[in-house]
Every structure is written in C-alpha cells, then in structure tokens.
UniProtKB/TrEMBL annotation:
GO-annotated molecular function: heme binding; iron ion binding; monooxygenase activity; oxidoreductase activity, acting on paired donors, with incorporation or reduction of molecular oxygen
The organism of origin for this protein: Kryptolebias marmoratus
InterPro entries associated with the record: Cyt_P450_sf
UniProt-recorded name of the protein: CYP7B1
Database matches in SUPFAM superfamilies: Cytochrome P450
Gene3D superfamilies, per the entry: Cytochrome P450 (1.10.630.10)
Length: 34
C-alpha cells in the first residue's frame, strides 16, 4: 500500500504547485526549529 500512496501523494503535489509550496515551507520550518 505504500507505493500507491506515495505515487498519489507525489502526483497531487505535482498537479498542485501551491500544495508543494506548503509542504516545502513546513519542512523548512521543522528543519529550522531543530
């Protein structure tokens, strides 16, 4: 089940650049906090 879930998550992020930006910002915030 991991492979299909990963595929659809990446597909969604590729189809919705605004979602990708939110994910990138969240990752950067977590990295800066540590």
């Amino acid at each position: 089940n991991t492979v299909p879930a990963t595929f659809w998550a990446i597909y969604h992020l590729a189809a919705h650049p605004e979602a990708l930006q939110v994910v990138r910002q969240e990752i950067l915030d977590v990295l800066r906090a540590n």
